[in-house]
Design goal:
The structure holds two protein chains of two kinds.
Chain A (H helix, E strand, L loop, with lengths): L5 H23 L8 H19 L1 H7 L4 H21 L9 E6 L3 E6 H26 L2
Antiparallel strand pairs in A: 1-2
Chain B lengths: L1 H12 L2 H8 L5 H17 L2 H5 L4 E8 L4 E7 L1 H24 L7 H20 L3 H19 L6 H32 L4 H6 L1 H5 L4 H15 L8 H4 L5 H10 L4 H13 L3 H23 L4 H29 L3 H38 L15 H15 L5 H16 L7 H4 L2 H25 L17 H19 L1 H16 L20 H18 L1 H9 L7 H23 L4 H22 L15 H19 L3 H21 L3 H22 L12 H26 L8 H5 L1 H5 L4 H9 L1 H34 L1
Antiparallel strand pairs in B: 1-2
Classes of the chains: A mainly alpha, B mainly alpha.
């Protein structure tokens, strides 16, 4: 994936920021508005793939030092961990709970344990999607 | 609280790698691990007074309550006996292993993780009341046993031994699962306790006998009963602490536990009696006879374990007659046999555990385990010799050791059974005492061989690889404790009997009324038949031992072709050849064939279930009106799909396929499902990208003319696939087979605090699905990574050559 496309690179510089921001928005708003861990993770991985496409694997790897295999494993661990948290409190496995907190800037905010679960989902999705695409693209 | 202690081994296994990494240079990892069984043992001790007074305790941990899958732990006499054995022997074995396993050379973290995994599984097994949870722990013991046997995996014999143990015990495990499922179907409950509460339903059911046979298959394979016993000698490839713990004191007793647990359900039927007692008796004879011709000390102990397990099994079978007789005099007599089974089970754990540790010491200090090289070790290892003497004489059934007591009770039980006069026993019942007596003679002889061929005779240091001296104290500690127990139990058997064995018997035979007078173990019964039998065993055994040189050689020449192992090997290689040819028959390496299998399976299963369950039913009455947009989108999709078919090169096809996907996303937009539209859009983008990447590896699309059958198959499969999906989608709408779950969605905000229903479904209502989905996703990702990188690695190696 080594190209020297000026237009693509310039567009990517801007677009990647927009996509990344949007994906974080999608992820964090998922509980009440369209979005969620799966879609947030997927759009984030599409942004990462876009970076890979335009700047090449080596350059991106230098700057994003994340092992995506470990990321996906971490995601699954987080998801299972939130499930276990319920067990510790004597509830069935994977029981989710939520509560409302008054935060200084955000006002009345709902905090849900489902969000942590969703983080696991997002990380697993990012890790897997990027991992698969990278593996196949490196196979020459 | 209770489950914290039961899960403690599994939880602490997580920390073993860290402890090994940071502290192993200073402290042997075993010292940390030792804390676990010790804590559990002390915790379980406090249940003894309550359980001895007849109380039981039940602890429920919700797991998947909607499916009635809960981890229910039930503490009664039987499970407490096993729990104490597992944690107690576990602690001793770990102390022993600290000195046995070198801290420098061995991969200790692996060893202790496997060991803790086993301990957790075993504790879970004996305390579970839920049948399926019990089964899960049962298989986990098989898996951890596999890992422990293959601990020195660079040795071929270790790997083969592990495989053999795995194949045989998992075969039994499947049997057990089938048996449990039948029991669940019959009683309509998962709980052993509830099954016991309504026994009539099960006992008059047509599946009673099949379920019993399946459960027994599981118990017999696990407890190495004839003819499944062949895995146990090969399992001796494991490090000696493992052999001492898993393959003599605990895991092989899981089958015994199961039989004891199921006795109130299945006992009392003649099939159960004949299978359990008969197979036990045959195993007793087979094990003791085969042990005689072994030259490897560990193999000898393995066969002796098989034989002793047979003895316990036989006693359980005899004990099950108490269920038949109920609360009567005969019932009490056979109840005592069940008591003897539990007593011998405990005794066996003490003396056999110490004997295995003695063999480990000999192996460790001399570098040899073969009695043909050993001899005269009495002079150099006096303490080890004393322990071996105590353990060996106890196994032979001599006073003043605990083996004598349970052996006497065993003789009493087989004498009683020959006069029971039911189940056809009046004709061939006499076989029981005769076979038991003969097997006891063999047992006596191999115990003598074990003790005196190793420690007696002349000392020949030139045959040994190391200079021999007494073992370090740390290694002697555990066998000394066990040896002291052996003697202590002989003098004070009723302490054990009253507080631990009697409550265990109560949970095994709840219907029999036993007074404490019946269950009193006494050393001196007066001059009765049992004592005469024991004296006979000693006299004949000594004669045999004196003349052993002559006939043992003859036994070692027993033809290999007639052994069970030979048949196992033949069967294994035959199965492998068969499965290779079968697999090669359909694994063609062509993607097209695999797609055909997948689609054909999909079509056949779905279409047939739709037809068989009368699922094809259309209901268009509630459908929304079709708008202009819909028509336009459908037309566009048809055109795009047509382009895929007719495209002359792959890029066009891929882009057109992407177009179909985006069109679907448009549909979601029209139907106001922004979540789905977004997801579909991104998935489509990413998968088109993947396609383009794979495109690099694909051959050029050529317009060659394929043969007609080839095209015809494609046509049929694609039409069938399309038809199935269409029918499925249409009938899904027209159906009200199950109760609607709309109330969940309507109340999503109250139930899950989510205004977005889709998200509430994903993370809350169906969180389990999502969790498993991402697990599958992650595993698939790793699979792709491994496949691709293995391939390029292999290619690089190829190029370098």
């Amino acid at each position: 994936m080594k190209t020297n496309d000026v237009i693509l690179k310039t567009v990517t510089r801007v677009a990647a920021v927009i996509i990344l921001t949007f994906s974080i928005y999608l992820f964090s708003n998922g509980h009440h508005h369209p979005g969620g861990g799966f879609i947030g993770g997927l759009s984030m991985s599409s942004a990462i793939v876009l970076l890979y496409l335009s700047f090449g694997v080596d350059k991106v790897r230098e700057n994003i030092r994340v092992d995506f295999k470990k990321l996906s494993a971490l995601g699954v661990l987080i998801a299972i961990g939130t499930g276990m948290a319920g067990v510790i409190f004597g509830k069935p496995f994977l029981t989710q709970t939520f509560g409302h907190v008054d935060l200084p800037i955000f006002g009345d905010t709902e905090l849900a344990s489902a969000l942590i679960f969703d983080t696991g989902v997002a990380l697993a999705v990012i890790g897997t999607a990027v991992n698969i695409i990278l593996s196949i693209s490196e196979d020459r | 609280m209770f489950y914290t202690f039961i899960f403690l081994p599994l939880i602490s296994a997580l920390f073993v790698p860290l402890l090994y990494k940071y502290f192993n240079r200073l402290v042997h990892t075993g010292w940390f691990v030792l804390v676990v069984p010790l804590t559990i043992f002390i915790y379980l001790l406090q249940y003894i007074p309550g359980v001895a007074a007849g109380d039981t305790y039940k602890y429920t941990l919700s797991w998947i309550p909607s499916l009635d899958m809960n981890i229910v732990f039930y503490v009664d006499g039987l499970s407490l006996l096993f729990g104490l054995l597992i944690s107690g022997v576990g602690a001793l074995v770990i102390v022993y292993s600290i000195y046995y396993m070198s801290k420098i050379r061995e991969a200790l973290h692996n060893f202790y993780i496997y060991l803790l995994m086993f301990m957790g599984a075993m504790l879970g097994l004996v305390f579970s009341d839920h049948l399926l949870v019990l089964y899960g722990f049962w298989e986990l013991t098989s898996v951890s046993s596999f890992l422990l046997i293959s601990y020195w995996y660079e040795r071929k014999s270790s790997r083969q031994g592990a495989l053999k143990a795995m194949l045989i015990t998992v075969l039994g495990g499947f049997g057990l699962l089938a048996g449990f499922i039948m029991m669940i179907m019959m009683a309509d409950t998962y709980s052993i306790r509830e099954i016991l509460a309504n026994l009539d339903v099960i006992q008059n059911h047509a599946l009673f006998i099949p379920a019993m046979l399946c459960v027994l298959l599981g118990a017999f394979t696990k407890s190495a009963q004839f003819p499944f016993s062949i895995w146990l000698p090969d399992a001796m490839e494991a490090p000696t602490p493992v052999s001492s713990y898993l393959h003599s004191a605990t895991m092989v007793k899981a089958g015994i536990y199961l039989v004891a647990r199921m006795t109130p359900i299945f006992g009392g039927s003649s099939v159960w009696f004949w299978l359990v007692a008969g197979v036990g008796l045959i195993t007793l004879l087979y094990g003791s006879l085969t042990a005689l011709r072994q030259t490897d000390l560990k193999a000898m102990l393995a066969y002796s374990t098989i034989s002793q397990l047979g003895l316990i099994m036989c006693l359980l079978g005899v004990g099950s007659l108490a269920v038949y007789f109920g609360a009567s005099d005969s019932g009490t007599v056979f109840g005592v046999a069940g008591f003897a089974a539990l007593f011998h089970l405990f005794n066996h754990s003490t003396f056999k555990g110490s004997l295995f540790m003695v063999v480990g010491i000999i192996d460790h200090e001399t570098g040899r385990r073969d009695i043909r090289y050993l001899g005269g070790l009495m002079q150099v290892m006096p303490i080890t010799f004393t322990i071996a003497l105590v353990g060996g004489l106890s196994m032979a059934g001599l006073p003043p050791f605990n083996g004598f007591l349970s052996k006497e009770m065993f003789f009493a039980a087989v004498n009683e059974v020959s006069q029971a006069g039911i189940f056809g026993l009046s004709k061939i019942g006499l076989l029981f005492p005769i076979i038991a007596w003969i097997a006891s003679i063999f047992t006596f002889v191999y115990c003598m061989i074990f003790i005196f061929k190793t420690f007696g005779g002349t000392y020949r240091p030139e045959k040994l690889t190391r200079t021999v001296h007494e073992a370090p104290w740390g290694m002697l500690f555990s066998p000394i404790i066990l040896g002291l127990l052996v003697i202590f139990i002989f003098f004070f058997p009723n302490v054990l009997g009253k507080y631990i064995l009697t409550p265990a018997l109560t949970s095994m035979l709840p219907m029999t009324e036993m007074s404490s007078y019946d269950l009193k173990i006494s050393v001196w019964h007066g001059l009765n038949l049992e004592l005469v039998m024991t004296i006979g065993v000693i006299v004949v055994g000594l004669l045999f031992f004196k003349s052993s040189k002559r006939w043992i050689q003859a036994m070692r020449n027993y033809p290999q072709g007639l052994t069970l192992n030979h048949w196992y090997n033949k069967g294994l290689s035959g199965t492998e050849r068969f499965s290779t040819s079968l697999t090669n028959g359909y694994m063609t390496g062509s993607l097209r064939s695999y797609l055909i299998y997948t689609f054909a399976f999909f079509v056949i299963v779905l279409l047939s279930s739709l037809l068989l369950l009368y699922g094809i039913r259309f209901d268009f009455s509630n459908d929304a009106a079709i708008s202009v947009f819909d028509v336009g989108l459908v037309l566009a999709m048809v055109i795009a799909a047509g382009t895929v078919l007719l495209a002359g090169n792959r890029i066009v096809a891929i882009v057109a396929l992407g177009a179909v996907g985006y069109m679907v996303a448009m549909f979601f937009v029209i139907f106001r499902a922004p979540d789905l539209a977004l997801t579909q859009m991104v998935v489509e983008t990413v998968s088109t990208l993947l396609f383009l990447l794979c495109f690099y590896h694909l051959p050029k699309l050529t317009k060659q003319i394929e043969r007609i059958p080839f095209k015809l198959t494609n046509l049929i499969i694609s039409i069938a696939m399309g038809l199935t999906v269409t029918l499925l989608a249409l009938s899904a709408n027209g159906h009200k087979m199950f109760e609607p779950i709309t109330s969940f969605f309507e109340n999503a905000f109250e139930l899950a605090g989510a205004k977005n229903i889709v998200n509430a479904i994903l993370v809350d209502f169906r969180g389990f699905d999502t969790m498993l989905e991402i697990s599958v996703l992650a595993v698939a990702g790793l699979g792709v990574y491994v496949l691709v990188h293995q391939r390029s690695k292999g290619r690089e190696q190829h190029e370098n050559e």
